[in-house]
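Bench notes, afternoon.
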Amino acid sequence: MIRFIYNLFWPIGLLFFLPGYFVKMARRGGYREKFGQRLGIYDRQLRACLSKQKSTWLHAVSVGEVNIALKLANALRVVEPDLRCVVTTTTTTGFALANKNAPPWIEVMYTPLDYWTIIRRAFSVIRPVRIILVEAEIWPNLAAEAHTRRIPLVLVNARLSLRSERRYRQFRFFVAPTFRLLDLVCVQEREDADRWAALGVARERIHVVGSIKYDPDGRDQMSEVQEAKHQTRLAWVNSECPVLFGGSTHRGEEAILATVFLRLRHQFPSLRLFIAPRHVERVQEIRAQLTALPLRVGLASEAIRQSPDELDTDCVLLDTTGELQRWYDIATIVFIGKSLTAHGGQNPVEPIMAGKAVIFGPHMENFATLAKALVLRKGSIQVRDVDSLEQAIDELLHDSEVRRQLVQNAREVLSEHHGATARAAALVHELCSSEQQPSQVYSKNLREQVGSAGKQEK
């Protein structure tokens, strides 16, 4: 009955949200490419390619989730050498990143809209042997169709913020039936297990494995072109110019960073500012805003061709997608975006793994447990406002030993998630091969990989 109501009102909801949806896609660009896939319409070549195989279907919304999906797929490939995958993503940025980094055995597609006729067409083309959802993407029709076809449904790196949990609890009657269809849920922290269980997931299907996003193992390999760019960026590390880096910033935070930067330039004349906006389509808007301050602003695509001595700018804006992790190497101090003027926060792990001191604002709801652990164990600095941000940056620029200690403490916090990718991959493999007798070698590896997660749950 609930699914019937959902499908009944789905077209009305689509019409309501469609204008904003199209505006957002038009702003980001590239939405015309393979748009039919969102409606379950696939070209003959893709159909022919997928008809030759059965695939593991990984669904990831955008850039962050795509990185997790690719990392997990590579881990699964270790225990399943013949693995073939389909990765679907919602955003054009996620699609571009997946296309850029996916190996030949992964087919990249757009996510079909969750309407029953569209989903059925997608299933008939993709022919999944299992479906892996990343973080929080659980759609009623997709889940129901998987259940009807007896296809295992997995949620990995399951994320449930306090805000989302409260909202789901209010509508538990409607969401619990969908959550009960999950065959396996890999959560990041022990308290996450209690939250998912309270929303209808069977306790025995929930496993604490740590965060794939925070797991430094299995980091992606660079192509020769990417390696060349990486070495060019590293040239700035050896220069005497300290770099204040704003990672995944949201509207308003760029102006704040620029203001703080201009004040600190009086003490640190060689200081440079690098900003990576969360949405690259805002680059020209930000450039105009900062130029008016005034600042000499350049683009990363231009700066990459220059040496540090030739870089005649105060601020560089990243105008490329999917390379932020490697740009962190040039930073001295990293501010985590969406934490000062917006709520939720962005991922602090990548700059920490790059060996950089991290600062974030009061709003880290999407990473609340990690942010709290980092602050309590002196692995990062949390600021309240612009003044405290300036003070924290000032102190860190003056003291390299404090920066080094912050990084060391932060990495100790992250070490608890080492091996999360392998543990999740082992559980996914076990779920789909439970009816078959595993080899003695694999049984031994599985016990080793999942053992620590089982101890945590107990």
